[in-house]
Design goal:
The complex is a heterodimer of chains A (897) and B (235).
Chain A lengths: L7 H8 L1 H38 L5 E5 L5 H8 L6 H43 L5 H25 L1 H33 L11 E5 L2 E7 L8 E7 L7 E6 L7 E5 H7 L6 E4 L2 E11 L19 E6 L1 H6 L4 E9 L6 H21 L4 E6 L4 H42 L1 H10 L3 H28 L1 H11 L13 H27 L3 H5 L19 H12 L1 H33 L9 E5 L18 E10 L16 E8 L17 E4 H7 L6 E5 L6 E10 L6 E5 H7 L9 E4 L11 E5 L1 H44 L1 H10 L3 H41 L10 H28 L11
Parallel strand pairs in A: 4-9, 6-8, 14-18, 15-17
Antiparallel strand pairs in A: 1-10, 1-11, 2-10, 3-4, 3-7, 3-10, 5-8, 6-9, 7-8, 12-19, 12-20, 13-14, 13-19, 15-18, 16-17
Chain B lengths: L5 E10 L6 E11 L4 E5 L6 H8 L7 E6 L2 E2 L5 H11 E5 L10 H9 L8 H7 L15 H13 L5 E5 L7 H18 L2 E6 L10 E6 L2 E7 L12
Parallel strand pairs in B: 3-8, 3-9, 6-7, 7-8
Antiparallel strand pairs in B: 1-2, 1-4, 4-5, 9-10
Helix pairs in contact in B: 3-5, 5-6
The chains are: A alpha+beta (897), B alpha/beta (235).
Chain lengths: 897, 235
């Protein structure tokens, strides 16, 4: 015979359907979203990983200042370091030989000429010729007639041969000595004698590109920078989300995400520089899944940056300078990131030395595993799912506690029945199983529906969320074991054990205690003393004390909701705050970074712009010294610090008085992110060289736009061993028009600073609003579930007070006001807790990223975040009041239902 | 008839400590035979419910012992006590303690589920006059009907002992007599030993064995040679 108690379950579900509906809806939404995120995530990761193979993603790339010769590429692909010492000695010897030969020839000619002249003068003297003009005539004549023979004879002499030999020997020795000195330094700098070095063979493919100005609305103004690649590239290829690759010189395919953001569609015409192209395809380059223009960008920028593909013929007709970029792939694929880092270090040594030997220059080097544009999306997707599932578990934990309290309340209510059943012979286990059935069924129901939605509606939602931000290849849902475990097993286990613990504890009591309705574990010998307030106040206070356990669960729920509200309000606020202060974050309206301080003819670059001011800049690394839970994309390692050399009396940046004495000033963002104070000492080091520099914080520069260090121009040149006329660029109040564009590396304007906020606003703005409303509902539902318990617990008392003649309003105030007071108090406490928790989470998050972005919440938002929660509560109070009104009078008179 | 089916020996039980200590049972001795209808009679505070709880294995004595069919309850652990209650006992309380969201038939099935050899549920429903109400929920029934269900839940197990704690305490005269008749029927029909706690003196006339308690001790331990059927009782 089946346990007849099981029949209670569907009836319980039916009779209390609104409560269970609220719980199930929450579980469905949370589990569905998490499941959707996991399924979408696994689908996207699978699509990315597959595309990495099929689209031939590089293992790294480097850019040179000029095209590499095939010999250079051949030597480099062996992965061997070049023999730089021999190269320099050969080169030095050759130069020395030329110079020695020149010198010997010069000296020989002088000596021979002098010998002939001396001979002629002696003869003239012997003949008594004293007239200087005659003597000069005679000597010139003799030199002319005998010079060649005399030179030939002199060359044959032993004396000459020995002198020449000595000169060459000395010169060669000097060359070797100088090269050895310099070489020693280079070896140390690049750690070239690293014994663990083993050559890493690579295949190298050229992947030249140009950064063109893009005008997508044909208004004659530059709207974005577009990185143009050739359509015949066999590495770092693109997948087409729509349309096709360009086939004629007037066709172009551009990034899908950028096109989507700026409203360009297939068939539209856009202008690159002076040339117009018809868009025939929307693509996603496998090495630009996120549109990071530079690897050090804090955020990708799908508005202001674009990638594009044109035919090789069209590429040749473009005018901006070519970036001689080369992609390499290892012959043997590194197994993991550690091996990839080792391989990259070895290859870098080969690259540095071979580039020197082949008289080229490295402009950029980036191993793929550190490449933000190809790794950011993948790790962001992973990070998001982790974050979301933690939130999911917190919520399920809260729901489990609500459940446990509900059940505990039911057990209280059914004490007599339980006592009778136990007295009749029902075992504890049977009753535990009985009371566990409901939470398990509800969780299973929530998990099943949630998972079903996870593979359908929510998967698309999650995917579209990422497709709105990233240029991802097409993907389809894949079976996700992780999703099943995390969205079904873990919630089930959480729900199971939390409820089991509460129910077991509750059913520990003897049958007799249940029959006597004596369920309090600790008996208060005396009632709590309450001040002599009015009767109603004391009554409320009693209700408050009675419901302490419910309130304990409530505070966790409310903190959870407030934390989320702080996020929902704080993120857009922080973005707006950043945007508002963006202008302050600019040293100057225009900041020009030059390719070099001299033009091709060797002349120092100047400008007639009156407001232009030179500055020096250098990028170094600050050791974070903290491990990162987000890997790769340049975020796990050290923080990139921009070191500026500022002219004396700069009209753009004011440094403190001790700047001239070598004082180093940190940007306020730098100080805040790493907690630096005046007097603190720290070390910055070079990225590709084994060189480090020590600094002491002399003060702060109020600049939140980036992690920067400011030095006086003189100190900068001194510290970094720069020449007096070296500089990196100009600050300017007005646009500089008289510098050759080829010489300008980048121009930073307010729009560049704003691209971070624009991108984040675009990706998350709408979502945040939905999130806020979702949180109101969540808050209301949590409070509803707990308030319901309080009313249910007091049904008899409420009924009795009604019989005694209390009005519904009075009863409402008795039972609602204590909870209302608690909710208001908790909202405030929870806001403070949530706010500081969010600040802390934000800081941890920032430590994983390069750059700095302060968490900010406007006073209005602070008030709103509490208000939203209270709005949720007002709805609950109304429902509660209706519920109180509906409690019939006879509840108190009936011992049994 | 087994002479010593239920043995109560020197049973003592007190509540509280120190000055507040209250001796509820102060050494009780009596035996009940198998199939006997035994009434524990006494005013409130005489210890009759405590005694019933100890016999039912849901409370423990401080001294003395209870043995049923030779098995001492004090030798049983909690699990064995549960099995003991499950196999041998049926309980009827003054408050019917029915499960509100199970109907009449299902409430009786709650008892049947526990037994290895339960009575037929339909038959019990008929015996108790509950056939027409079997699909009703407890809150649709009168007090007397609810107590019938509670008796049904206890007897359907076909227990060796039916423990009744003031089964008519909350009922009117007429309904009380109906309920007593039902218990009497069960006793006769199934040879179930009945131990009924009551403070109603009139009920003693229907019992085979009347034990009067006062201040925690047995004052009278009488065997009725002639019993009066419940239907004929007057009070």
């Amino acid at each position: 015979m089946r346990n007849p108690l099981i029949k209670r379950v569907p009836r319980e579900l039916k009779s209390d359907w609104h409560k269970y509906l609220v719980i199930i809806i929450f579980m469905v939404i949370m589990i569905g979203l998490i499941s959707g995120m996991y399924v979408g995530h696994d689908g996207m990761i699978a699509a990315i990983d597959e595309s990495r193979e099929s689209l031939n993603l590089e293992d790294g790339s480097f850019e040179l200042s000029k095209p590499a010769s095939s010999e250079f590429l051949n030597d480099l692909s062996t992965g061997q370091k070049a023999d730089v010492r021999s190269y320099y000695i050969d080169k030095g010897t050759k130069e020395a030989d030329e110079r020695v030969a020149e010198e010997i020839e010069k000296r020989l000619r002088e000596e021979v000429t002098k010998a002939i002249e001396d001979g002629v003068r002696a003869q003239c003297e012997a003949y008594g010729i004293t007239d200087e003009a005659t003597v000069k005539e005679q000597t010139d004549k003799a030199v002319k007639e005998n010079f060649e023979n005399a030179i030939r004879e002199a060359r044959e002499t032993e004396e000459f041969k020995k002198a020449s030999e000595d000169a060459y020997k000395e010169a060669h020795e000097t060359v070797v000595k100088t090269v050895d000195e310099e070489w020693g330094e280079a070896v140390e700098r690049y750690n070239l004698n690293d014994e663990s070095f083993s050559p890493v063979a690579v295949s190298i493919t050229s992947n030249y590109f140009r950064d063109e100005a893009e005008d997508y609305d044909l208004d004659g103004k530059e709207d974005a920078t577009v990185r143009v690649f050739k359509s015949d590239s066999k590495i770092d290829m693109a997948s087409f989300n729509k349309g096709r690759a360009p086939e004629s010189p007037d066709e172009i395919a551009i990034d899908r995400m950028h096109a989507d953001n700026v409203g360009v569609e297939i068939g539209d015409t856009i202008r690159l520089g002076e040339k117009e192209f018809r868009v025939v395809g929307l693509l996603s380059y496998i090495n630009y899944l996120t549109l990071h223009q530079s690897n050090t960008d804090l955020m990708f920028d799908a508005f202001g940056f674009d990638t594009a593909m044109v035919t090789p013929e069209a590429f040749d007709t473009l005018t901006s300078r070519i970036h001689y970029s080369y992609a390499y792939k290892y012959a043997v694929k590194p197994a993991d990131k550690i091996e990839a880092a080792d391989a990259s270090n070895s290859f870098l040594k080969a690259l540095i030395t071979q580039t020197l030997v082949y008289d080229n220059e490295i402009k950029d080097y980036l191993p793929e595993y550190l490449r933000q544009a190809s790794n950011f999306a993948r790790s962001d997707i992973e990070g998001d799912t982790t974050g979301a599932s933690i939130l999911c578990y917190i919520l399920i934990g809260v729901i489990a506690f609500i459940f446990a309290i509900t059940i505990s309340n039911t057990i209280d209510k059914e004490a007599l029945v339980i006592g009778t059943l136990r007295a009749s012979g029902y075992s504890k286990r049977e009753l535990i199983v009985h009371y566990m059935t409901m939470p398990v069924i509800v969780t299973l129901l929530g998990a099943t529906i949630g998972n079903a939605l996870g593979y359908t509606a929510f998967e698309r939602l999650a995917v579209s969320l990422y497709y709105d931000s990233y240029s991802l290849p097409e993907c389809s849902p894949v079976w996700s074991t992780a999703a099943l475990i995390k969205t079904t097993l873990i919630p089930l286990v959480l729900m199971f054990f939390i409820n089991l613990a509460v129910i077991m504890k509750k059913l520990q009591l003897s049958p007799l205690r249940f029959l006597r309705h004596d369920l309090k574990r600790t008996k208060r010998t005396k009632a709590r003393r309450i001040p002599a307030w009015s009767f109603l106040k004391r009554f409320r206070l009693r209700i408050l004390f009675q419901n302490m356990p419910n309130y304990a669960v409530l505070i966790f729920g409310v903190i959870f909701v407030e934390l989320m509200l702080c996020f929902a309000f704080g993120l857009p606020d922080s973005l707006d705050h950043y945007a508002e202060t963006a202008e302050d974050m600019m040293f100057a309206p225009y900041q020009y970074m030059l390719m070099d301080n001299k033009d091709d003819d060797g002349n120092v670059i100047t400008t007639s712009e009156a407001t232009a001011e030179r500055f020096d800049v250098k990028t170094l690394l600050y050791p974070k010294g903290k491990s990162s839970f987000r890997e790769g994309m340049g975020s796990g390692g050290d923080e990139s610090v921009t070191v500026y050399g500022i002219s004396e009396g700069s009209s753009y940046i004011t440094l403190g008085e001790n700047a001239k004495d070598g004082g180093a000033f940190v940007s306020s963002a730098f100080a805040k992110k790493f907690g630096l104070k005046t007097g603190d000492k720290f070390e910055l080091h070079e990225e590709y060289e084994n060189k480090s520099y020590d600094f002491e914080v002399a003060g702060q520069v109020d600049y939140d736009g980036g992690i920067a260090l400011f030095l006086d121009e003189g100190s900068f040149k001194n510290v970094f061993n720069k020449k007096a006329d070296d500089f990196s660029g100009f600050f300017s109040r007005n646009e500089i028009t008289d510098i050759d564009e080829q010489m300008i590396a980048t121009v930073i304007t307010k729009d560049d600073v704003l691209k971070v906020t624009n991108q984040l606003n675009h990706s998350m703005g709408g979502l945040m609003d939905i999130f806020k409303y979702f949180l109101i509902v969540l808050a209301a539902a949590l409070i509803y579930l707990l308030a319901k318990i309080i009313i249910e617990k007091n049904e008899k008392s409420i009924s009795m007070t009604k019989i005694l003649g209390f009005s519904n309003g009075e009863i409402g105030s008795l039972y609602i006001i204590p909870t209302a007071a608690i909710v208001v108090l908790f909202s405030l406490i929870a806001f403070v807790a949530g706010y500081f928790l969010m600040m802390w989470i934000f800081k941890i998050f920032m430590m994983q990223m390069d750059g700095y972005f302060a968490f900010f919440m406007s006073p209005g938002s602070m008030v709103l975040s509490v208000l939203y929660l209270l709005i949720g509560y007002v709805f609950v109070s109304i429902v509660d009041f209706i519920r109180i009104k509906k409690i019939p009078l006879d509840v108190a008179l009936k011992d049994m239902e | 008839m087994n002479e010593e089916f239920l043995v109560i020996k020197d049973l003592k039980k007190s509540f509280g400590k120190g000055e507040a200590k209250q001796d509820v049972l102060r050494g009780m001795d009596f035996t009940v035979k198998k199939g006997e209808f035994c009434v524990l009679l006494g005013p409130s505070g005489s210890g009759k419910s405590t005694l019933l709880n100890i016999i039912g294995g849901i409370d423990t004595p401080d001294e003395g012992f209870v043995s049923i069919n030779g098995d001492k309850l004090e030798d049983m652990d909690e699990k064995q006590l549960t099995v003991y209650r499950r196999k041998h006992l049926g309980y009827v309380f003054q408050m019917y303690n029915l499960i509100p969201n199970l109907n009449v038939k299902e409430n009786i099935e709650v008892g049947a589920y526990l037994s290895d050899h339960p009575l037929d549920v339909e038959e019990v429903l008929t015996t108790l006059g509950l056939q027409e109400h079997k699909y009703k929920y407890p809150n649709q029934l009168s007090g007397g009907q609810q107590q019938r269900v509670s008796i049904g839940r206890a007897v359907v197990k076909n227990p060796d002992i039916l423990m009744c704690d003031e089964p008519t305490g909350a009922l009117d005269y007429k309904t009380s007599k109906e309920i007593l008749s039902l218990i009497e029927d069960c006793n006769k029909k199934f040879n179930t030993t009945v131990i009924m706690v009551t403070h109603n003196e009139a009920i003693k006339y229907m019992a085979d064995h009347v034990i009067k308690l006062r201040d925690g001790i047995v004052r009278h331990n009488d065997i009725n040679e002639k019993t009066i059927p419940a239907a004929d009782l007057e009070w």
